[in-house]
Amino acid sequence: MFGSVRWRLVWIAVLVAVCGFALVPETIVDEVTGESERVWPLKLGLDLQGGMHLAVEIYDPENTLSGQDLDDAVERTLTTIRNRIDEFGVREPTIQRSGNRIIIELAGVDDPEQAKRIATETAFMEFKIVTDGQEFMDALERIDRAIVNEVGIENLQVTTLETEPEVDLSDILGGAADSAAAEDAAGEEDAVEGEDPAADSLATEEEAADAVDEATARPLSALLGQGRILGEYLVPQEDQPTAAAWLELEGVREALPRGLTLHWGVEQVGAGAGSYVPLYVLEAEPLITGDMLQDAGPANRDPTFNQPIVPFETTRRGSRVFERGTARNIGENMAIVLDDRVQSYAVIRSVLSRRAQIELTPGASFQEAQELALVLRAGALPMPIEVVEERNVSASLGEDSIRQGRTAFIIGIVGVIIVMMIYYRTAGILAVGALLTYVVFMLGGLAGLEATLTLPGIAGLILSIGMAVDANVLIFERVREELAAGKTPRTAVDAGFGNALSAIIDANLTTLITGIILFQFGTGAVQGFAVTLCIGILASFFSAIYVTRTLFIMYLNRRGSRESVSI
Amino acid sequence: MRVFQNANYKFLSMRRPAYFASAAIITIGLLSIIFRGGLRTGVEFTGGVLLEVQFSQTTDVGQIRDALTAGGTTGVQIQQLRTVGGETNDFLLRVPVGEEEDQNAIRDQIRTSLETQYSAGSFEIARGDTLSAKVGDEFQRTAVIAVLLSFLLTLIYLAFRFEWRFGVAAVIATVHDMLITFGFISLFDIEINLATVAAILTIIGYSLNDTIVVFDRVRENLRKKRKEAYDVTLNRSLNETLPRTVLTSGTTLIALFSLVVIGGAVIRPFAGVLIIGVLIGTYSSIFVASPVLLEIHDRARRRSAIAART
After folding, report:
1. Which class in CATH covers the domain with range A2-26+394-559?
2. Touching A: B residues 130-159, CB under 8 Å
3. Looking only at Cα atoms, what is the longest distance across chain B?
4. B215-221, long-range: CB within 8 Å, 24+ apart, which pairs?
C-alpha cells in the first residue's frame, strides 16, 4: 500500500518536474548588443502581446491560376516576402504558408503601415552591370565629405569613435586620398585571386588603431573592406544600418557619380562577429528589367561539368535589349537585383539573347541553384499581392488584456478554491492541491508543445478548469453517497472513485473529440480554442483521477483507523 | 456542508411546462433575430474594418461621425467603450464591406479622416482588424462545418458508449442551448465575433459535459434496477446527480462573474454569453435531455407494442 503511494508520488513528481522545466524562463543574449533578456517560454498570441497579423493572397480575380501554376506562384511570393521581412528586422517573424494563403505574424511592430507596405509591394527585378568600382573610389572623398557635412563632425565622432578632440579637417582629408588608392590596389589583387575577404578586414582594423583621425573625416571609407569581386565592398554587419542611413542622405546622392547606383546584397559574408554585408557599385541603367524576363528555372545540372545551372528565358523584346547589353559587357559581372537588393551575380561569358543560363560556381549546392531559380521567377513573374486579413493590436492594449484577464482569472480560481474548501473541507483542500498540479501540467503542456495562448484560447482554458473541478465534485459526491450507505471511509473512497470514473471518462472524451475536430477543421480563433481545450482536458483528467486519488490515499493513511473522513 | 441531498423532485412530470418554457424562450429569441434582420455579425464574418481608437482628448460619437463623414466615409458604426469606472476615450469603429469593396482602402480613408479632424498624434489605433469578405465567409463556413462534424462524432461516440438514443437526446439538448444562446445574443444585441464564437463553443462543451454526467447515472441505474419504470429511473438519476449539478454550475458561475466584473471590455461580452450558456446548459440537461430520452423510449415502446399486436 505504502509502496504504491510512493510510486504514485514519484510519477506525479516526474510529471510536475517535466512541465515545470518547460516553464523555466530562457535567457536570450542579443548577439549584437550583448544584452540578455529573460523570456517566458509561453508564447502569447498577437491579440495578447500586441503585433501585426497579415494574411495575403495572390491577387487573381479572374482565377487564371490553378494547380501547379498557383502553387508555384505562392512559393515565389513566399520567397519574396521572406526576403523582405528578414531585411525589415523584426524579432522572430512567422511567415508561413497556409493553403494558398501566406500568413505573416510580426510581434511588436512599431509601424504596421510600413511593415504592410514592405510585405505586399510587387516584386521588382533588374539585371545590372557591376562596375569596377574605380569611379566610385574616386568619388569616395566627396561622399565622405558630404556625410561629414550633413551629419556633422561631432555626431560622427560619437557614432564612430567615441570621443576625440577637435581635428584639423583639411589635414586629414589630404592623407586620406593616398590610403584610398592603396586600398584600391589591394582590392584588385583580392578580386583576381578570390582571397578570403576576412583577411582584408583585418588590415582595416589594424589601420583603424593608428588612423583614428583619418576615420573621423572619412566615415564611409573607414567602413568599406574590399569584396570578392571588383565593385563589391564589405561592410561590418553592425555598421551596416549606419552606412545605409548615410547613403540615403541628399548630399551623398548628389556626390555619387552619375550613372552609378549602390545596392546592398542579401547574403551575409562570414559569420558571427566577423560578419559582413556586401555593398555593390552598379551601373544605374539596368541591362534588362523583370518584365522582360519570360520565365526561369527549374534548376538542373550541366550535363558535362555536373555543376548546378539555372536556365532562364527573356521575352521577344527583352531578348533584343539583352543581346545589345551583353555584347557590350562580356567579361563583366552582372548583378541580379530583386527589390533593390543584390541577390546574386554572374559573369557574362558571351552574348545572350532569348535563352540563357546561369552557371553557379563549382562549389555551389543544388539547393542554392533552386533558390536562385525561385528568385528569378519571383522577378520574372511578379505577383500582385492582396491583403485579405489584417489584425493589429497595440502592445499597450495587449498588456491591458493580459493584466485584466490575469486578475479576473486569479480571483475566479480563488473563488472556486474557497467554495471547494467550505463545501468539502479536507477533501476540498486535496482537490485544490490536485488543481494546482493541473495548472502546472496545463501551462507546461502549452509551453512544451509551443502552442500559442490567445484570447479564445483562454476560453478553452476556462472550460477545462471547469471540467477539472467537475471531475473532483463528481468523485466527492460519489464518496459521500457511499459513506451515507454505511461504508467505511476506505471502501467508500475506492468505490467513489470507481463509480465516478465512467462519467469522467465519457465527459472528457466527448469534449476531447470536439476539441480535435475543431482543431482539424477550424481556422484561427477556433483552433486557438481547440488547442488549449485539448491540452487542458488531458491535464484535468490526469490531475482529477490520479493526483486527487493519491492525495486521498495519503490522507487516509495518515488518519489511520479512525472511522470518519472529512468530506 | 450539503445541498440538495436526498432530493426527490419530480422533474420529469414538469417536462410539459418545461417544453413550453423552452419553446417560448426559443420563439422569443428567433423573433428577435427575425425582427432585427439576423444576428449582428462582426467583421470576422462579413469582412470589413474594425478599429479601436484611443483618443488622448475628450470627444464623442457625434464628433467622430462628423469627422468621418467629412472624409467621405459613411455607414460606420461607432461605439464608445465603457469600463466599470465610467466612459473612456476609447471608441470602436466598424464598417462592413461587400464583395466588391476594398477593405484596405476604407481603413486608410478612416485613418486619413481622423488625422484631418484630430491632430495625427492625438489618437492611437490600438486595435485594427481588416478582413476581406472572402475570409469572413471562409471563417463562417469552417466554424459551422466543425461544429456539425463534432455533433456527428459525439452522436457516434455516445451510441457506442451508451445507446443511440442517448446521443440523439444529448445533441438535441445541445442544439436547444445554442438556439437559446443565439436568442439571447440577439436580444442583448451582442455582436457575433471571435470572442462570442469561442463562448458558443464553450457552451457546447459545457452542455454536453453536463448532459453526459446525468446520462452516466441513468446508464448505471438502468443496469442496477431493470424492473423499475423508465421514467422513475430517469427521475431518480436526476435527483442523485443534483448536488453535483448545482455545485459545478455554482463554481463555474463564480469564476465567470469575476470575469464579467474585472475582465475588461474585450472579455465582458464573452463572459456574459458564457453565464447565460452555463445556466441554460444546466437547465437543459435536467429539463430537456432526460425528457427527450424518455420521449424516445416511450415512442419506441409504443411502436414495438403496436408491432406485437399485429
Report:
1. mainly alpha
2. 130-132, 134-135, 138-139, 142-143, 145-147, 149-150, 153-154, 157-158
3. 86
4. B215/A506, B215/B158, B215/B162, B215/B166, B215/B169, B215/B170, B215/B289, B215/B293, B216/A502, B216/A503, B216/A506, B216/A507, B217/A503, B217/B241, B218/B166, B218/B290, B218/B293, B219/A502, B219/B162, B219/B166, B220/A499, B220/A502
CATH of A288-384, one of 3.40.50.150, 3.30.56.10, 1.10.287.110, 3.30.1360.200: 3.30.1360.200
A337: which 3 cell numbers?
537585383
**Residue A169 and residue A502: Cα distance in Å, rounded?**
88
How far is CA B70 from each of CA A50, A53, A187, A428, B172, rounded to the nearest angstrom? 31, 30, 62, 62, 52
What predicted TM-score, i.e. pTM, was given to this entire model? Answer: 0.71
Chain A residue with CA closest to B6: the answer is A481
Whether the pLDDT of residue B119 is over 70: the answer is: yes
- Identify whether the C-beta of residue B67 lies closer than 8 Å to the C-beta of residue B116: yes
pLDDT in tens, A298-323: 778 877 777 888 888 888 888 888 88
Comparing CA positions, the residue from A88, A109, A87, A106 lying closest to residue A96 is A106
C-alpha to C-alpha distance for A299 and A389, rounded to whole angstroms: 34
A138-175: b or e for each residue (b if 16 or more CB lie within 10 Å)? ebbbebbbbbbeebebeebbeebeeebeeeeeeebbee
For residues B1 and B5, give the distance between their C-alpha atoms in angstroms, rounded to a whole number. 10
CA A412 to chain centre: 36
The minimal CB distance from A397 to the residues B126, B150, B258 is found for: B126
Residue pointed to by grid coordinates 491577387? A59
- All cell numbers assigned to B247: 455545485
Domain residue spans of chain A: 2-26+394-559, 43-120+386-391, 132-283, 288-384
CA–CA min distance A461, chain B (Å) = 10
How far off is chain B from A422, nearest CA to CA, in Å? 7
Write the pLDDT tens digit of every residue in A70-123: 888 888 888 878 877 776 667 678 888 888 889 888 887 777 777 787 777 777
Q: What are the extents of the domains in chain B?
A: 12-41+135-309, 48-131
Residue among A57, A138, A68 nearest A100 (CA): A57
Mutate to test the interface with A, among B104, B152, B217, B248 (most CBs of A within 10 A): B248
Asked if the C-beta of B209 comes within 8 angstroms of chain A's C-beta atoms, the answer is yes
Mutation target vs B (from A53, A407, A501, A510; most B CBs, 10 A cutoff):
A510
Q: Do A506 and B261 touch (CB under 8 A)?
A: no
Query: What class does CATH assign to B48-131?
Result: alpha beta
Q: What is the DSSP letter of A239?
A: G
The answer to whether the Cβ–Cβ distance between A465 and B202 falls below 8 Å is no
Q: Does B112 touch chain A (CB under 8 A)?
A: no
DSSP letter at A285? S
For the residues of B2-14, what is the DSSP string, one character each? -SSTT----TGGG
Q: Quick one: cell of B88?
A: 473612456
Looking at chain B, the number of H-run helices and the number of E-run strands are: 10, 4
- Which CATH architecture group holds B12-41+135-309? Up-down Bundle (1.20)
How many angstroms separate the CA of residue B162 from the nearest CA in chain A?
10
The pLDDT-based confidence of A181 (bands split at 50, 70, 90) is very low
Residue B200 sits at the chain A interface (C-beta within 8 Å): no
Q: Write out the three cell numbers for A107.
A: 510581434
Higher pLDDT, A231 or A456: A231
Here the cell at position A455 is 484570447
Interchain CB contact of B18 with A (< 8 Å): no
- Find the mean pLDDT for residues B198-208: 87
Distance CA A508, CA A510 (A): 6
Calculate Rg over the CA atoms of chain A: 33
